[in-house]
Design brief:
This protein is about 65% helix and about 0% strand. The chain is an all-alpha fold. Helix 2 packs antiparallel against helix 3, helix 2 runs parallel beside helix 8 and helix 7 crosses helix 8. The chain is globular, with a radius of gyration of 20 Å. The chain binds zinc ion.
Length: about 300
């Protein structure tokens, strides 16, 4: 874990330092920004996600510090924990509860909202929008989500706490833009090159992060359960997780280790969640649903998921 963390941090910051010190040609600079995009995605998938779940380390301080690697992308840890840890993991694939599957602009991620005519082309244009995800996140999403979660009560903060949270959010974003846009311009890199490179970095990170996280839930084979008349989901949480999440391409050798890490964690989550749900019943039941539900999922290849998820 430590080596992986150091490598990912270096893969994000070293290209940027080289960019500032050497001010290479636009082509080389673009490659450096691209590397930063990969580094950023890796940090998000493999460090920030785990740390903000409290799962990176037994040490709370380490989780706290590494969870704030999200600030390196200008994002808000406070919002992430509400949206991801609480809403996404508690209400996975439940429309109007899990923001990950909410309709966004021209994109539709669940079967229960109205289909627009142009969405038959979504499988093509989706990737373009995936590419602007992290940029949208830094500029707007955090503020929109914060207002929404404060209004609907997901955010339990008091008025004063909320003022402090918004203040921290703004400061993090200002520092982020100062470091990654203003600083390179100040030392003499042309504005158009800095803005183009910044977009390349975000585009790479956005596509990688969105594809990886969407493929776990928004594909054929997962379900999108609706609450019953009393507002409950029929299955217990663990079975619900099994029905709404897939594991994929575990054995694929070409995938980066960081991705495989995430997949292995999904597998462990599946297993533990399943055991939690089934232990009070018979041993035979434990075997049967695992056989039925997990095995086919292992066989799904990444390419198949990519093709059918939009
Ligand atoms: Zn998670």
């Amino acid at each position: 874990m430590v080596i992986k963390t150091v490598v990912l941090l270096l893969s994000y910051f070293v290209p940027f330092i080289v960019l500032l010190l050497l001010q290479p040609s636009f082509l080389v600079a673009s490659l450096l920004w691209l590397m930063m995009g990969f580094g950023l995605a890796g940090l998000g998938m493999s460090i920030m996600h785990d740390a903000n779940h409290g799962a990176y380390s037994d040490n709370k301080t380490i989780n706290y510090i590494l969870g704030h690697t999200l600030s390196f992308a200008g994002g808000s840890v406070f919002n992430w924990k509400l949206q991801h840890n609480i809403l996404h993991h508690t209400y996975t694939n439940i429309v109007h509860m899990d923001d990950d599957i909410a309709d966004k602009l021209v994109l539709r991620f669940n079967p229960h909202t109205k289909v627009k005519k142009y969405q038959s082309m979504q499988y093509i244009y989706a990737f373009l929008f995936y590419g602007i995800l992290t940029l949208y996140w830094v500029l707007l999403k955090d503020f929109i989500q914060f207002a929404k979660y404060t209004k609907n009560g997901v955010n339990p903060g008091t008025k004063n706490e909320n003022i402090a949270t918004v203040f921290r959010m703004i400061v993090v974003k200002l520092i982020y833009f100062a470091a990654f846009i203003v600083l390179p311009i100040q030392i003499g890199i042309p504005v158009w090159q800095v803005l183009s490179g910044f977009m390349i970095m975000h585009f790479a990170a956005g596509i990688i992060l969105t594809v990886v996280f969407q493929l776990a839930h928004t594909v054929e084979g997962t379900s999108h359960p609706l609450p019953n008349e009393s507002g409950d989901i029929d299955n217990c949480w663990a079975i619900h997780q099994m029905n709404t999440t897939v594991n994929f391409s575990k054995a694929a050798s070409f995938l980066p280790g960081i991705w495989v890490d995430l997949i292995i964690k999904l597998s462990i989550t599946f297993f533990l969640a399943f055991v939690m749900c089934i232990i009070p019943t018979s041993h035979q039941l434990l075997k049967q649903p695992l056989k039925n539900m997990v095995s086919p999922i292992w066989k799904i290849k990444l390419l198949v998921l990519l093709l059918n998820h939009t």
